[in-house]
Amino acid sequence: MSRYKKENDQQSWSSDDMASALKAMLDEKIGYYKESTRFNVPQTTLENRMEKVKSGMSVEEASRKGGLGRYKPVIICNEEKELVNHVLFLESRVFGPTTTELGQLALFGKPYVKAATIETALNGFRKIK
After folding, report:
1. pTM here?
2. Which of 28, 85, 101, 115 has the fewest Cβ atoms surrounding its Cβ within 10 A?
3. CA–CA distance from 19 to each of 8, 62, 65, 97, 112 (Å)?
4. Would you say 22 and 53 are in contact if contact means Cβ atoms under 8 Å apart?
5. Domain ranges in the chain?
6. Which CATH architecture has domain 15-63?
7. Widest CA span in the chain
8. CA 47, CA 35: separation in Å to the nearest integer?
9. Tens digits of residue pLDDT in 4-45
């Protein structure tokens, strides 16, 4: 078990709080500062997410947390849940995939993966020497 403890409070807010704050901003027309303190989310993050909502993005997408660091996810949350359910189904039938097969299933099992992200994702599955 890892003993790592996070040393900062980046992204300590929840996606549900951010979605509630965005919906309240759209409905009530209250300022960013009041909404950020009311829902315990960072003000600048709320401002940035509100700009995304105003440009046409849905509240659910805008309230989703981004990953910390430079690596971006290859598959989205819904597809990840679908993949987990499929792997659990395979394991219940005693056909559990290996790590390599799981990576191939995640990358090539669905048509949603773009060719540009395949090479990036494969680099994540390769061992670092």
Report:
1. 0.50
2. 115
3. 23, 8, 11, 36, 26
4. yes
5. 15-63, 77-125
6. Orthogonal Bundle (1.10)
7. 55
8. 10
9. 676 766 777 888 888 888 888 888 878 889 888 898 888 998
